[in-house]
Structures are given as structure tokens and as C-alpha cells.
């Protein structure tokens, strides 16, 4: 892997981490989230340090998506001898969006099913199958992501549409919200873990 590719993947990873964190405020605007070991820095109870927390999701999904996003684009460039661009190949880019999100999230749920100590050994395969289905359902909602920069450019100008905020962070944040929200019913008081239900005054 070249230094340029490593730097690009690192930037993508940071963008996706930020997008996942911000999407929690769209999905759970009134709820307190469980960030594992980071809870102690914001005055919240710590249950699990990492596994089963929003921090696990933020770091794990971002890493998998950065990998599949860049791998998908590299494969397209190798096959078609040109860079993948929404303006020039909109259908291919929308297909890429679904494929890299679905494969990235599925890679994440595979790792979670295999290594998360909170899953019983006898339930790991069933967990993977169930989570893969959720990944497929949620990923189908992200078709709009490539159109977000176009909309931003139309209403706020080309500079805004081409900026990191308009072309990367905002589309990813909105996509995270729909993928998690629809795929896992992760909205409002739904989709909360046991600690989140506790710190939000809900029954376990």
C-alpha cells in the first residue's frame, strides 16, 4: 500500500468516524449515548469499556467502510481504466455506494459476531445472519448519498458542494442515519443498549 493510499484511507476513516458520531444526534436527539470508556470523561456511568458500545460501532464500522470504499474504487479503476466519478458514471457510482456500504457493514458484523464476548458461542452464527440481513436492509436506503453534494452545490454554491463538509461529511452522516435507523430500527428510544436505557430513565 502506497503512502498516498494510506493517507486517503486514514482521511476516509476519520470522516466516517465523525459521521457516525454525528448521526447519533440525528437518530437520538434527546437520548444519552453509551460511549464505553469515554463515558467517564462526560460524567456518565461506564458499563462495557468497548464491546457493545457506540465507540465500538464508530471505530469498527468506519474502519471496514474505509477499506471497502477504497477497494471498490480501486477495482473499478483497474477494470475500466478510469476513476469512478458520479458526474461521469452515476449508475456505477450508486452501485458502488450500495456495494461498499453493504460489504463494509457486513464485514463489521462478521467481526462483531466472531469476537464480541457478549455473544454466546452458540448464537454467533445466528447473530451474523440476522445482522447481515439488517445490513442489507439498511444499505438499500443509502442510494441518495451521491446526490447530497449535488443538492448542496445547487442551494449553497459549487464551493460548498465540493467542500469536505458538503461532499463527504454531510452525505456520510445522512447515510449512517438511514442505514442504522432503518436497518436496525435505531431511532429515539429504540435501538438502545441496556446501559443507554438505564441512563435515559427507561426500563431495562
Number of helical elements: 8
- How many beta-strand runs? 0
Rg, please? 18 Å
Q: Helix/strand/pairing class, anyone?
A: mainly alpha
Uncertain segments: none
Element pattern in H and E: HHHHHHHH
Strand content is under 5%
Shape: globular
**Terminal Cα span:** 46 Å
Instruction: Give the averaged pLDDT, no decimals.
Output: 97
Largest sheet: none
Helix content: 55-70%
How would you characterize the overall build of this protein?
With 204 residues, the protein is mostly helical. The chain contains 8 helices and no strands. The protein has helices spanning 3-27, 54-80, 90-115, 124-139, 148-156, 158-162, 164-184, 194-199. The longest helix is centred in the N-terminal third of the chain and has 27 residues, at 54-80. The radius of gyration is 18 Å and the shape is globular. The termini are far apart.
Summarize the entry for a quick read.
The protein is mainly α and 204 residues long. Helices cover 66% and strands 0% of the residues.
Explain the layout of strands and helices:
Blueprint: H1 3-27, H2 54-80, H3 90-115, H4 124-139, H5 148-156, H6 158-162, H7 164-184, H8 194-199
Helix pairs in contact: 1-2, 1-7, 2-3, 3-4, 4-7, 5-7
List keywords for this structure.
204 residues, mainly alpha, 8 helices, 0% strand, globular
Amino acid at each position: 500500500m502506497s503512502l498516498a493510499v494510506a493517507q486517503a484511507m486514514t482521511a476516509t476513516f476519520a470522516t466516517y468516524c465523525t459521521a457516525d458520531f454525528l448521526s447519533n444526534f440525528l437518530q437520538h436527539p434527546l437520548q444519552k449515548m453509551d460511549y464505553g470508556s469515554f463515558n467517564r470523561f462526560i460524567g456518565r456511568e461506564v458499563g462495557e469499556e468497548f464491546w457493545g458500545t457506540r465507540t465500538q460501532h464508530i471505530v469498527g464500522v468506519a474502519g471496514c467502510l474505509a477499506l471497502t470504499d477504497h477497494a471498490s474504487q480501486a477495482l473499478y479503476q483497474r477494470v475500466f481504466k478510469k476513476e469512478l466519478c458520479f458526474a461521469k458514471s452515476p449508475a456505477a457510482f450508486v452501485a458502488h455506494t450500495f456495494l461498499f456500504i453493504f460489504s463494509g457493514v457486513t464485514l463489521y458484523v462478521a467481526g462483531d459476531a466472531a469476537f464480541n464476548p457478549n455473544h454466546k458461542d452458540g448464537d454467533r452464527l445466528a447473530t451474523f445472519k440476522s445482522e447481515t440481513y439488517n445490513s442489507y436492509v439498511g444499505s438499500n436506503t443509502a442510494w441518495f448519498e451521491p446526490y447530497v453534494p449535488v443538492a448542496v452545490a445547487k442551494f449553497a454554491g459549487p464551493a460548498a458542494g465540493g467542500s469536505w463538509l458538503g461532499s463527504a461529511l454531510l452525505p456520510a452522516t445522512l447515510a449512517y442515519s438511514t442505514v442504522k435507523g432503518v436497518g436496525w430500527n435505531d431511532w429515539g428510544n429504540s435501538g438502545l443498549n441496556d446501559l443507554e436505557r438505564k441512563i435515559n430513565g427507561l426500563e431495562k
